[in-house]
């Protein structure tokens, strides 16, 4: 346990007052700190390795070991609770400076030495104390007496805590004694849920439900502790043995503080470890991001145990490392298989194992379509079959058993038959591997040897057990044999010739049951034998079967069934058979419940007329006392004038009187007792006559022939569907109302019986099955009156040109009761009193926007609009502002969205380029070539909003940057296009091939005649060797006259072709003479190391803006030099805008789109351990054509 900080002061053994207790990194160690603040560089004592408890036989040699640390170095002392250790013949304390171990030795342990011992480590800043227990096993008469006494004490113990609930089997036939409770809980805390069952079976835990409850509580406590230091923990991978015979386990955790201390323990003892991949220690920790990987190297049986990882004293993970004592009698051997043949690996173990781990290329292998894993019946022979071998399957395969492994190669021989090249090879039916060894014979010999060794060890163990006076010799012999087998690396499964019968025992105990009154409850347990007779008890009394209680047995299972259980059957049940028993509780609960049929009736909606009453009654069952509550729309109800609640035995009733429409809603009935809560819901609907229809009245038509109106439905229909609307009409000036009768459920009516010019008023009522609503009276509506529309808004100018002025306006707010049919517009010149119509009388303007074209350029106008409805044209509205009939001032702008800035034309063909623009007033259009006026060979054609450049028959001299400038009084705009007049290039001159470096050849050629006239001309090199019939490109975009080809093989003939390329295409090739290296040159031992040297330097470059630029050079050096490109002394190697490559000493760089920022000095630096070389050039971007 950890000792946490406390402010309680106490006096230590030296008389000093301890300021406070503090926690230790090692569980079970108590630290007392003497001062509040410890100076920097100093520390109180603590234990790196604490002494461990001993259980030792009388007369043996006993020793306690401890390692401590602290600054200054602590003083270590020992004492015991009952007695002194000052006898030097009996107790000896020692210190080993090499290992730093303090030891307390007891040469010959006797019964009186059994006691609690303490180890103290003290310096001026504090004290650390660790208690340890020494247990002595006495032999002879004394041991027999103590055993009998111990059994009596154990029989007197009664279960008083949860730990006694976890019953553990102690039968003598079990080979492995039960582990300590603390270890079992640590294993369960970090185990997967799927492993709980076999862990409980292994350690004898039968109360599985109790274990889960306690485990959940412990996990919550640990999560709270972990939250102090850890943000998140996941991906817990338990310990596994690898093919390299190392064991690893992994944790993914996110530490709140990266500097938090991490401790590793084995069976509670701190284990030192190294970080990362240092080789000097057995235990290692490697950290990759949030993943922590612990490794145990050089495995041996002593490495088995419980490994735990703590962060700042808080446990985060535990894993149990079990090492089965097994080795390989026959290891797997190398297998050579042909392509598409099956291959088999096989091995023989020294002891039976159900399965071993197979690995291929360091990855685990499981049985699937590719691999098949088989195990012999005696579990000694293990095989791995690799199906349908492919070249990718070749590699190292390994078998791992316990802490031992073996590995071998799988060699897959590729089919070299030329006839099968490019074809799918057929699957072979033969099998590779297996060897000539008789595995069955070896396995049989190993089994016999194993059996013989076990019999000898059993006999020896029985003799020793008899000498010690153990009553049950067979059980002790089995334990001795298991211990001996572990030491001899043999399996733990002991097969006694005549094993003792353990008798009947429970493999599945009874579990607690919670049942509801009236339901059926059943208790079931499972025994180790079939058809065993047993007795059932309830609260200590034997149970006799009756109509309610029935007992049955089915093979291994015993069951007790209770039909229609009542509270009389609650209590503790016990089943006893052959002296073994198991117990469980049946808890009978009686929560509130409803009968399903009655509940179904209760939930049917209750429809009640206004003023009547509604009754809700529902029966129920359940144990008293019971809390009963009624709710309406979430508000609890109580007895009132119109509310009455009655409770009877097994029922409750709610009565609501004089219901109103507003009482419509949800009724809830709630029951609650000590066992639970239940609710039932019902719906109440109170129906009434509807409320009046709602206005305002919408007039759809009010003409001389008809009045058509619409209105809105009632706000509340009273809970019923509207059947009809009832209308009455009154002519204004008369006292009588005319019934128009029910018109149906639609809130819409068209009255055709009207007189032109008369005004009418309407009364409207809604009618349902509950009655007729109050009336809604409408305003007056006139039939066919000449109601003119009001004036529209003042027109607004949208655009104004010399030949058209466009205006828009808003419709009038008063339409005169009818729809707007159109508009009239008038115009007036500034300074004139005369308004003239814009549109003809019979040609109404339909839209609310109109373009007036009957205008005189330069004149100033104002406009006004009148609306037209069924009665005719209304009054004209407010005039617009004065506006000139002239084009607006527009800055020149090119309207083409996608226009090319580069054009290639073959010499002799015409070159044509069109450019569209807009500008006002009309602009001046000017064309220039390279900033100079055009020659007479170029024709320019200008039209409204467009300009065309035409070169009828282009020549190379016409190449250049052509710029159009459009300019008016508002501004100007320019655009440039590069027109390149070229022709198919002429082929380069003779091609020569030379070998400068072994394995490479340098191809050089004379330049093409067009190279000086075309700065975009470059070269392409292709190659063909005697082993192939086709040519393939080896280099492109070469701007010099030399290229170095790599990977030239001796004994082959090579041909090279060089093409000149430009924007029009490629020239005819110039071909090199045949090149051949007749044979291997005589190898000579020589030192080829040399400093870097540039064989082909960089070339000066001038590139047009927006085009790509390719630079290349050749460098040699041994070792291969590291190449760095720079621009203006800034490295470009990591700049993604530059494509840099280095192939066999040919260094190149490609700039995809050259811009002004790329201008500058480019330098390439080659470095190796023998020296450094530099080569530089300049790149100029041609942008002189731009207008300043």
TrEMBL record:
Renumbered residue ranges of the record's region Disordered: 983-1012
Pfam families recorded: fn3, I-set, THB
SUPFAM superfamilies: Fibronectin type III (SSF49265), Immunoglobulin (SSF48726)
Keyword Disulfide bond: yes
One cellular component term from this protein's GO annotations in UniProt: M band
Keywords assigned: Coiled coil, Disulfide bond, Immunoglobulin domain, Repeat
Keyword Repeat carried by entry: yes
GO terms, biological process: sarcomere organization
Cross-referenced InterPro entries: FN3_dom (IPR003961), FN3_sf (IPR036116), Ig-like_dom (IPR007110), Ig-like_dom_sf (IPR036179), Ig-like_fold (IPR013783), Ig_I-set (IPR013098), Ig_sub (IPR003599), Ig_sub2 (IPR003598)
Coiled coil feature spans: 437-467
Matches recorded under PROSITE patterns: FN3, IG_LIKE
Fibronectin type-III domain: residues covered: 692-788, 791-888, 987-1082
Domain Ig-like: 45-135, 502-587, 892-982, 1092-1182
Taxonomy, superkingdom: Eukaryota
Listed name of the protein: Immunoglobulin like and fibronectin type III domain containing 1, tandem duplicate 1
Source species of the chain: Hucho hucho (huchen)
């Amino acid at each position: 346990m950890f000792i946490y900080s406390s402010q309680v002061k106490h006096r230590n053994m030296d008389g000093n007052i301890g300021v406070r207790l503090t926690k230790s990194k090692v569980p079970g160690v108590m630290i007392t700190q003497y001062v509040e603040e410890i100076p920097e560089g100093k520390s109180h004592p603590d234990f790196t390795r604490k002494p461990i408890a001993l259980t030792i036989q009388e007369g043996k040699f006993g020793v306690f070991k401890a390692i401590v640390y602290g600054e200054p170095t602590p003083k270590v002392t020992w004492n015991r609770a009952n007695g002194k250790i000052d006898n030097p013949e009996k107790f000896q304390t020692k210190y080993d400076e090499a290992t730093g171990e303090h030891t307390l030795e007891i040469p010959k342990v006797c019964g009186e030495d059994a006691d609690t011992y303490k180890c103290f480590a003290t310096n001026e800043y504090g004290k650390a104390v660790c208690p340890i227990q020494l247990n002595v096993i006495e032999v002879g008469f004394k041991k027999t007496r103590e055993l009998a006494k111990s059994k009596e004490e154990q029989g007197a113990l009664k279960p008083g805590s949860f730990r006694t609930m976890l019953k553990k089997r102690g039968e003598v036939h079990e080979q492995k004694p039960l582990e300590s409770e603390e270890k079992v809980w640590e294993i369960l805390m970090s185990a997967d849920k799927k492993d709980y069952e076999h862990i409980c079976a292994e350690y004898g835990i039968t109360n599985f439900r109790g274990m889960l409850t306690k485990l959940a509580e412990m996990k919550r406590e640990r999560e709270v502790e972990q939250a102090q230091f850890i943000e998140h923990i996941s991906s817990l991978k338990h310990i596994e043995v690898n093919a390299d015979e190392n064991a690893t386990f992994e944790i993914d955790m996110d530490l709140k503080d990266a500097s938090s201390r991490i401790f590793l323990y084995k069976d509670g003892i701190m284990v030192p470890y190294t970080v990362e991949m240092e080789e000097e220690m057995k235990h290692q920790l490697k950290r990759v991001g949030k993943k922590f990987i612990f490794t145990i190297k050089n495995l041996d049986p002593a490495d088995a145990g419980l490994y735990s990882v703590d962060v700042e004293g808080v446990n985060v993970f535990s894993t149990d490392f079990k090492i089965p004592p097994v080795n390989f009698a026959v290891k797997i051997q190398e297998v050579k298989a042909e392509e598409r043949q099956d291959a088999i690996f096989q091995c023989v173990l020294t002891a039976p194992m159900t399965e071993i781990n197979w690995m291929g290329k360091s990855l685990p292998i499981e049985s699937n379509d590719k691999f098949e894993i088989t195990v012999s019946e005696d579990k000694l022979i293990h095989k791995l079959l690799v199906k349908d071998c492919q070249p990718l399957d070749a590699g190292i395969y390994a078998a791992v058993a316990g802490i031992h492994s073996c590995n071998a190669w799988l060699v897959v021989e590729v089919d070299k038959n030329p006839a099968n090249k490019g074809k799918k090879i057929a699957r072979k039916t033969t099998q590779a591997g297996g060897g000539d060894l008789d595995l069955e014979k070896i396995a049989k010999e190993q089994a016999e040897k194993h059996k013989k060794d076990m019999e000898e060890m059993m006999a020896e163990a029985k003799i020793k057990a008899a000498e010690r006076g153990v009553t049950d010799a067979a059980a002790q012999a089995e334990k001795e044999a298991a211990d001996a087998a572990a030491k001899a690396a043999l399996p733990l499964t002991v097969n006694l010739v005549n094993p003792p019968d353990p008798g009947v025992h429970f493999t599945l105990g009874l579990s607690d049951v919670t049942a509801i009154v009236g339901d059926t409850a059943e208790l079931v347990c499972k025994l180790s034998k079939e058809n065993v007779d047993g007795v059932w008890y309830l609260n200590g009394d034997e149970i006799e079967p009756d109509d309610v209680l029935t007992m049955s047995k089915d093979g291994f299972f015993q069951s007790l069934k209770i039909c229609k259980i009542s509270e009389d059957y609650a209590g503790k049940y016990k089943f006893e058979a052959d002296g073994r028993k198991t117990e469980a509780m049946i808890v009978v609960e009686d929560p509130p419940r409803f009968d399903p049929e009655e509940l179904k009736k209760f939930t049917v909606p209750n429809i009640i007329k206004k003023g009547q009453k509604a009754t809700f009654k529902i029966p129920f069952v359940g144990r008293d006392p019971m809390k009963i509550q009624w709710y309406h729309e979430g508000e609890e109800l109580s007895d009132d004038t119109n509310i009455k609640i009655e409770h009877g035995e097994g029922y409750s009733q709610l009565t609501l009187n004089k219901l109103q429409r507003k009482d419509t809603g949800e009724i809830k009935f709630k029951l609650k007792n000590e066992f639970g809560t239940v609710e039932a819901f019902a719906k109440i609907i109170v129906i009434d006559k509807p409320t009046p229809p709602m206005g305002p009245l919408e007039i759809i038509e009010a003409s001389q022939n008809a009045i058509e109106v619409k209105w809105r439905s009632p706000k509340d229909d009273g809970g019923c569907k509207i059947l009809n609307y009832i209308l009455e009409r009154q002519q204004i000036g008369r006292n009588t109302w005319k019934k128009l009768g029910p018109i149906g459920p639609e809130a819409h009516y068209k009255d055709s019986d009207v007189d032109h010019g008369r005004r009418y008023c309407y009364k409207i009522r809604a009618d349902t099955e509950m009655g007729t609503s109050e009336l809604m009276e409408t305003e007056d509506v006139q039939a066919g009156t000449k109601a003119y529309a009001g004036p529209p808004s003042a027109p607004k100018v949208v655009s104004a040109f010399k030949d058209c002025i466009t205006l828009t306006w808003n419709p009038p707010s008063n339409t005169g009761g009818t729809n707007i049919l159109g508009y009239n517009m008038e115009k007036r010149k500034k300074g004139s009193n005369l308004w003239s119509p814009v549109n003809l009388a019979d040609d109404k303007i339909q839209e609310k926007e109109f373009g007036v074209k009957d205008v005189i350029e330069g004149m100033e106008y104002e406009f006004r609009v009148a609306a037209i409805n069924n009665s005719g044209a209304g009054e004209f509205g407010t005039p617009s502002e004065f506006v000139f009939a002239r084009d607006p001032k527009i800055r020149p702008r090119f309207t083409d969205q996608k226009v090319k800035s580069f054009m290639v034309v073959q010499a002799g063909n015409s070159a044509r380029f069109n450019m569209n623009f807009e500008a006002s007033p009309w602009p001046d259009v000017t064309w220039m070539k390279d900033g100079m006026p055009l020659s007479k060979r170029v024709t320019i054609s200008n039209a409204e909003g467009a300009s065309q450049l035409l070169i009828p028959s282009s020549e190379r001299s016409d190449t250049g940057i052509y710029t159009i400038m459009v300019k008016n009084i508002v501004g100007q705009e320019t655009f440039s296009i590069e027109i390149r007049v070229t022709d198919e290039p002429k082929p380069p001159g003779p091609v020569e091939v030379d070998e400068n470096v072994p394995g490479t050849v340098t191809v050089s050629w004379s330049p093409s005649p067009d190279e000086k006239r075309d700065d975009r001309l470059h070269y392409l090199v292709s190659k063909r060797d005697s082993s192939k019939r086709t040519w393939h490109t080896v280099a492109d975009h070469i701007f010099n006259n030399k290229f170095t080809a790599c990977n030239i093989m001796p004994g082959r003939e090579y041909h090279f072709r060089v093409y000149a390329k430009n924007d029009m295409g490629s020239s005819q090739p110039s071909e090199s003479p045949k090149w051949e290296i007749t044979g291997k040159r005589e190898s000579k031992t020589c030192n080829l190391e040399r400093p870097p040297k540039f064989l082909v330097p960089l070339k000066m470059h001038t590139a047009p803006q927006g085009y790509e630029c390719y630079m290349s050079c050749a460098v040699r050096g041994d070792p291969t030099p590291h190449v760095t490109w720079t621009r203006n002394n800034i490295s470009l190697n990591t700049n993604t805008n530059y494509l840099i490559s280095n192939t066999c000493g040919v260094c190149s760089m490609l700039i995809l789109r050259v811009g002004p920022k790329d201008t500058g000095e480019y330098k390439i630096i080659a470095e190796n351990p023998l020296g450094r070389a530099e080569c530089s050039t300049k790149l100029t971007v041609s942008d002189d054509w731009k207008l300043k």
